Every structure is written in structure tokens, then in C-alpha cells.
Amino acid sequence: MNALSTAATGMQAQQTYLDVIANNLANANTTGFKKNRVEFQDLIYNTLRLPGQSTDKDSSDPVGLQVGRGVRTSATMKQFTVGSLRNTGNSLDLAIEGDGFFTVMRPDGTQAYTRDGALKTDGNGNLVISNGWTLDPSISVPAEATAVAIASDGTVTAEVAGSEEAMNLGQITISRFLNPAGLKSIGSNLYTQTTASGLPYTVTPGEEGTGTLAQGFLEESNINAVEEMTDLIRGQRVYEINSKVVQAADQMYSKIAQIR
Question: Mapped to the 3 state alphabet, what secondary structure does the chain carry?
Fold first, then answer.
């Protein structure tokens, strides 16, 4: 009887399911956060009789006899649906209205990608994200700038005291991936490329299917609290049902042990 081990796999899978839901809910207010979805697969089967196997000389079994050995968590997949936009009024806050990622330069010279457009300026006037990593390509705001404007296509200009014409500071670009779900999450609202995501390709916002930029807005997480709570209850109940199977199997083993 494999009920104990089979039910145990169900409890382990649901524990992972609840862990992922907890992380989703914990990040409900995280800027640009994308929810994770858990995927399951059934395990190997004990095949006692193959479908189509002959039962006698004149007929064969139409369905066979197989007993499954449980379930496992096969993957957690990021869902990159666009979250709602929140007006902040901050000129350096940016949201991507559509697909794509901001590119930032890590201290080791490699690139990372984010949907969090809460930009700031460092001591040198460079546009950086919250942990201080610079936007790539880098854009520097001069100290004499009185206002910064970012167009929907990523063009950055600044009004400078004593000048009638706006100063062009550079271009914010958007990176895309063939398989964004294959990106690796490294925390701090950041992702890095993997072989599964494919190589990034950089385009101007609004071109080739990328989203445009919205200045003065931030993208909220795509977490739906009602859906997450419903999934939480579902996972909790499935966990309880599997624990009942463990109890039932234990009682059956106990009865067998009592046989004299």
C-alpha cells in the first residue's frame, strides 16, 4: 500500500503552493511585482496491466490497470500581465504601459532588468534605481536643470535655467525577451537573463510591440488579493484532505499490525 507516500507528496506539493501564494500576497504592494503560478505534474505509475493487454484469447483490456504514485511541483511561472498604474506626481517615476523591461547596469558590469521605474538621481546626477544601480544606457541630469521631462518614447529632456530650449539628455530604451517567464528573479524587483529567456533585444519604447512610458506613474503589482485568498483556501483544503489520507493509511497499517 503506497497511500502514505502518495499522500505525503500531495502535502509537500501543497506546502510549496501555499509558500508561493504567501509570497504573492506579501508583495501585493511591491512596485512592478509579477505573481508566480505553481504548476504540478503527476509522478510515475505502477503499471499492473497495460491498456490493450489480452485478458483471454478473444478479448483485450480497453483501459488497463495503473496506480499513480503522487504529485510533484514541476515549475513556478511568472505571469507578466501589466499591473494598474498609480499616479505619483514624481517626474522621475516611470511606468511601462505594455511589454518590456528597464535595463540597469550591475556593479560587476552585467545587466539586470526591472519593471520598477521608481528612478532617482545619485550624487553625480545619474538616473539610478532604488539600490543605486544606474540605468543603461546611462542618463545624467545636470545640476542646473530645473525640470525633467520624459516622453512616451523614452526621450529625456531638461529645462535649464537661462536657456530657452530644452536640453536633450538621452534616450531610455526598453528590453524584450522571447520568453520573459524564463528570466531569473534575483530580488529587489530585478531579473537576469537565462538560456530559457533568450537574449534581450533593445528597442525604443512603443516600437516592435513594446510598451510606451508614462511619466509620473508607477506600475503596481498584478496581484489580485481575492484570487490569491481563494487559492489559499483551496490549497489549505487539499493539504487537509491529503493529511486525512495519511491518517486513514496509518489506521489501516495499525489494523494489519494488530493481526495475530
Answer: CCHHHHHHHHHHHHHHHHHHHHHHHHCCCCCCCCCEEEEEEECCEEEEECCCCEEECCEECCCCEEEECCEEEEEEEECCCCCCEEECCCCCEEEEECECEEEEECCCCCEEEECCCECEECCCCEEECCCCCEECCCCECCCCEEEEEECCCCEEEEEECCCCCCEEEEECCEEECCCHHHCEEEECCEEECCCCCCCCEEECCCCCCECEEEECEEECCCCCHHHHHHHHHHHHHHHHHHHHHHHHHHHHHHHHHCCC
pLDDT tens-place string over residues 34-48 = 999 999 999 998 888
Percent of the chain with pLDDT over 70: 98
Grid coordinates 494488530 are at which residue? 258
| pTM strictly above 0.85 | yes
Residue 201 CA, chain-centre distance (Å), reads 20
